Structures are given as structure tokens and as C-alpha cells.
Amino acid sequence: MIPRILNLPFKRNSVFLFGPRQVGKSTLIKHLLAQENYIEIDLLKNEVLLKYKTNPELLRSEIEFLARKKDRIYIFIDEVQKCPEILDEVHWLIERFDKQVIFILTGSSARKLKKTSVNMLAGRAWQFFLFPLTHVELGSRFNLKNVLLKGSLPPVIDDQAEDAFRTLNSYAQVYLKEEILNEAIVRNIGAFSRFLDIAADQSGKIVNYSTIARDTGVSSKTVKGYYQILEDTLIAIRLEPFIKSSRKRLVMHPKYYLFDTGVINAVNGRISISSVAGSSIYGMLFEHFIILEVYRLIHYAEKPYRIFHWRSSHGAEVDLIVESTDNLWAIEIKSSPLVKSGNLKGMKSFLKQHSNAIPLCVSSCDRPYSAGEIPIIPWKLLFDEEYLNLLF
């Protein structure tokens, strides 16, 4: 098992663990509980799902019986969104037994829970997220070209490209198109399928809802709803434009990044990429990789950072803006090892408006250097807090 860096404090409190399918939620929980006394309720099994959907109060009776004999019990409920009704019983049991009964609840979507206004336990269970493997977790097994091509879902890490794409194609067809359709109760299957193809092709680009609506054959409102489905099911992350006015931000167009480069390639039918850093496809995937890594590692570190993209009215762009309580980082992402000052016009435009921002360009170079006054660093150093403290 590849060690995960998520700190899941399940011994101190009940937890929700959300994440897309196949990121390793069940494997992680079973590993953490290996030395503990626990009960597993797998709602992916039809007979188990039917049991608790028909009689959710059975959970209360079962746990009350066990609690008479055990000082502490861990209850692992997998894919809890399949049976939202059970959460009322979970809530009651947490209230009744406090830390004697600890729940670990996993799910690939909170959409159904939110849509049906079910009991989300009002903070009695802490929420965490698990993502595909990061370069930190992969360690010496990490290979940038492989991750850009195949992504980093655990089932494909050790597969050859051909087998990996069989898995990824199956994932895209069965999970993304069938289960999300089922989860979201989307009636126009053809339109959603077309939308998903477009969303993969447009991943990382500023969204024009009207254009996608025209290509998909549905309204702009429906396209916005489809993107919300991808967010709620953790298949995409949204980057809002960096604008100080939150009101203006609401009417500006965001970017969406699908959660894994391998899935993006599979949906697009792309089974190879150019190995030349600086090519358009390579550059797009490299940008995705960096932004997804930043997003994942911020979550794992539980940092109160916010991330955005920036585009001026004249078309100047900065790939990633990271805002903390103390600092504002402007980060440009270049797959080429050689970045010249003329390649950073968007950054310079941003700095004219935000002189307090800390500029940084990450690339595939092997050693840091400067392009004018802007540091160019190897991409791994972006995640080295000690190095960044020395730099600035």
C-alpha cells in the first residue's frame, strides 16, 4: 500500500471522507482500522443497501446491542450517499454514545445528501477529502510523464499505458457517464454525454456557458447545472477569477479542471502525449498537474488558502493566484525548462495592478534562475515550504 498523507483523526471524532471513486477511500479506511474492532457496512452491495433503505432504524438496534459489550466501536459505512436515510440514525447514535461509537462515513458524492436536505450531522462528523495520489505520496515511484499520460488513480499507477487506458476508458464510461447520470437524475443522457466530452476538452479553459450550451443542445442554465454536478461529485474543481469584489466574481467566467489527467486523456481519446516540454498538449497537462497538486496538498495540509485564475480585460493571464491571510502569490506555469522574460507578460500585467503580490514561475527546469525579476524554479520546489521561505 502506498502511504497516504491525509491525516484522518478518526480516533478523536466521527468523520466523513469524500472522494471520487477509485482514489482509495475504502483501502485507506480498512488500513487505518486494521488493528481496531470495527463493523463495515458496504452500501455498494445491493442486499446491504436494501436492508438499510427499507429499515434504517435497524442500525440503531444493532449498535445499541454491541455498545453494551464494547468500550469503543468503529462503524465504517461505505458510499453513504446511497442511503441518506441512515444518517438520522447515525446522528442519534453519536448523540447517545458520544466517543464510544465512532463513525467513518465515505462517499463519492455529497450531492444527493445536499439535494435531499438530509441530516449532514451538523458538524458532529468532520469532513475530509481524498484525491488521486500526489507526487509526495508516490515518492520514488513518481514519474512525471507517466502521471501526465495516465494520471494518478491508484489502480493504474503500476499498469502499462495500454492496460491503464482500458481501466480509464471503463472508468469514464461506467462511472462518469452512467453513475453520475444516475446520481444527478439527468434525463437527457445524450446531452450530458456530449457535455462531458466538451468539459474534458475544455478543462482548464475559461468557460463560455453559451458556446457549450449551443454545442450540447441545452440551455446555458442546464450547462451550469452540469458543471455543478461535476463539482458535487468531485470530478472537477472550479477556479474563480481573481477579483476583489465577490459580487463581480459571481458574473465572471470560471475555469474548471477535471480531477485527474488520465481521466481527461481517456475522455478525449488521447492515448499518447508529446514528450517535448513546451508542446501545447504537454503544456496543458503540465498546468493541470501543478494546479491539481496545489489543490490537493492545500486540502491535506488544511491550509486556509484560496486559489484563483486571473485574466485582464486585454487578455493577459496568470495561471494560478494563491491567496492566504498574509500573502498573495502569482504563479505562472510553464512546461518548458527555458522561460524568458518575454514569456511572462501576463505576470507583469498582474504585478502592475497588484504590486504586493509575490511572483513565481514554475517550470521543468532542473535549477532555479531568474527571468528579469521573476524567479523561475523547478516545479517540485513550489511544494517545498522551507525553500520558499529562503527565497522570499
From TrEMBL:
* Residues in DUF4143 domain copies: 179-336
What name does this protein carry?
ATP-binding protein
Keywords, A to Z, come to: ATP-binding, Nucleotide-binding
The record lists the organism as Candidatus Desulfaltia bathyphila
Q: Name one GO molecular function term.
A: ATP binding
Pfam families cross-referenced by the UniProt entry: AAA_14, DUF4143
Q: Which PANTHER family does this chain map to? A: CONSERVED PROTEIN (PTHR43566), DUF4143 DOMAIN-CONTAINING PROTEIN (PTHR43566:SF2)
Q: Does the keyword Ubl conjugation apply?
A: no
The protein's matches in SUPFAM superfamilies, at most eight in alphabetical order, are given as:
P-loop containing nucleoside triphosphate hydrolases
AAA domain span: 12-138
Would the keyword ATP-binding be found if you checked this record's keyword annotation? yes
Superkingdom is Bacteria
